[in-house]
Design brief:
Blueprint (H helix, E strand, L loop, with lengths): L1 H13 L14 E6 L4 H20 L4 E6 H6 L11 E3 L7 H7 L6 E3 L22 E5 L1 E2 L10 H5 L3 E2 L2 H13 L4 E5 L7 E3 L4 E3 H9 L6 E5 L8 H9 L6 E3 L7 H6 L6 H14 L4 E8 L6 H14 L3 E6 L7 H5 L6 H24 L5 E9 L6 E5 L5 E5 L7 E9 L3 E6 L1
Parallel strand pairs: 1-2, 2-3, 3-4, 5-8, 8-11, 12-13, 13-14, 17-19
Antiparallel strand pairs: 6-7, 9-10, 15-16, 15-18, 16-17, 18-19
Helix pairs in contact: 7-8, 11-13
The protein binds 5'-deoxyadenosine and iron/sulfur cluster.
């Protein structure tokens, strides 16, 4: 999401005469696009601000801006550092040129207004990826689910869906520019809903429209919400060959009691039923998840329920976190952050160990199978190999010299817990 936003910011700045540099030493303006999801993400930015302070000492004329979720959350508190000249929230990027005109050493500028309708629909993002194969397309902004641990609804505002035609247009443009894969992005793509005077487009319909651009364009999406992912969406993926067979379906916890406290609006049984539905229609569908260890009041039994759910489902991969209390959230206001850090760490380590074992199992089960890989470029480890993803999102590596953007059929011959080692057929 932040990569997508960075591309929007670049586009706005480029239209106003700015150019991009990869090196901080060359920059007149340094923007840090920030994340507030966990405290450690914010701590890293505080560390970066220290680095920017050094740079500013060396070159006093430069400007420093903090943009994104931390700007929204901390607002003018960021100015107290004495280093920051600009603070711009996720819905205010169009004001960047105006703020840059107004900013002076003794007059920092701030715009953190959230919007009900900003989707940056008309902005053509400047792609920052290096492979020219895979592009992110934002389809909605904000979030209306108030998961009790989550700061996103406060930093990114209310949910709004972007004009479906502008999404299809952008996907067609990137395809024509040579890209072969788009990832449609939203906090909860299943609640995408765009209405005009004469049509209503839900997420399944949007997927169909983007996939119809060309059979050579792969369509991915993130993130799905277990409470909202519909049979229609699952069946649309199953019946459309160029929609990739991979669903990122964050479970957060395997305990219904925890899910209730988290206000996720589904139970363990509901989640397992959605997984069963996906697997009954697409046995080969990749499935990944997010898990939080040590949420408020979590007992050993709740934790055991998470482990048993992960055991039962067998995810290909997971993003696993310790609960980090975020200021202003429901959980921070109403529940005690009562799991001691060492218990959180131990539970997280158990979750990671289980997932590593499961990943290896899931990857091993691919040995002997045939996959179609979209080549992204040379492998990082061995430049004689090339790499790219299978439809199910597993990374494949194999000897060869096909250019990025080509499709290659491979057979899986071996694996690690994160890569399929293949040979071309
Ligand atoms: N603490 C830990 N993890 C969190 N996530 C969101 N908020 C928190 C928090 N306060 C995780 C969830 C979500 C992912 C993007 O980040 O698992 O799915
Ligand atoms: Fe946060 Fe829940 Fe919205 Fe995801 S769905 S962004 S976890 S509030």
């Amino acid at each position: 999401m932040n990569v997508g936003d960075t591309e929007i910011i670049f586009s706005i700045l480029r239209d106003n005469g700015y150019d991009r540099t990869e090196s901080m030493e060359e920059a007149d303006l340094i923007l840090a696009n920030t994340c507030s999801i966990r405290d450690n993400a914010e701590q890293r930015i505080h560390g970066r601000i220290g680095v920017f302070a050094q740079e500013k000492k060396r070159r006093p004329g430069i400007l420093i801006g903090i943009v994104g979720c931390m700007a929204e959350r901390l607002k003018d508190k960021l100015l107290e550092t004495g280093v920051v000249d600009l603070v711009v929230g996720p819905d205010a990027y169009r004001s960047l040129p105006r703020l840059l005109d107004a900013v002076r050493p003794d007059s920092p500028q701030i715009d953190v207004l959230l919007s009900r309708d900003e989707t940056y629909a008309d902005i053509r993002p400047v792609r920052t990826d290096r492979n020219g194969v895979s592009a992110f397309i934002s389809i909605m902004r904000g979030c209306n689910n108030v998961c009790s641990y989550c700061v996103v609804p406060y930093t990114r505002g209310a949910e709004r869906s972007r004009d479906a035609h502008s999404i299809v247009r952008e996907a067609r443009e990137v395809f024509e520019a040579g890209y072969r894969e788009v990832t449609l992005l939203g906090q909860n793509v299943d609640s995408y809903l765009w209405k005009s005077a004469d049509e209503t487009v839900n997420f399944a319909e949007l997927l169909r429209r983007v996939a119809a651009i060309d059979p050579l364009l792969r369509v991915r999406f993130a993130t799905s919400h277990p409470k909202d992912i519909s049979d229609e969406v699952i069946e649309t993926i199953a019946s459309t060959p160029n929609i990739c067979r991979h669903i990122h379906l964050p479970v957060q916890s395997g305990s219904t009691r925890m899910l209730e406290l988290m206000r996720r609006k589904y139970s363990r049984e509901w989640y397992l039923e959605r997984v069963a539905k996906i697997r009954s229609v697409m046995p080969d569908c990749g499935l990944t998840t997010d898990v939080i260890a040590g949420f408020c009041t979590e007992t050993e039994q709740d934790h055991a329920d998470t482990l048993s759910l992960m055991e039962e489902v067998g995810f290909d991969w997971a993003f696993m976190f310790q609960y980090s209390e975020r200021p202003g959230t429901l959980a921070q206001r109403h529940y005690p952050d009562d799991i001691p850090p060492e218990v959180k760490t131990r539970r997280l380590n158990e979750i990671i160990a289980l997932q590593n074992r499961k990943s290896l199992e899931r990857y091993r089960a691919q040995i002997g199978k045939v996959q179609e890989v979209l080549v992204e470029g040379p492998s990082r480890k061995n430049p004689a190999d090339i790499c790219g993803r299978a439809s199910n999102s597993m990374m494949c590596v194999f000897p060869g010299s096909h250019p990025a953007g080509t499709y290659v059929r491979v057979r899986v011959v071996d694996c690690t817990s994160a890569t399929l080692l293949c040979e071309e057929i």
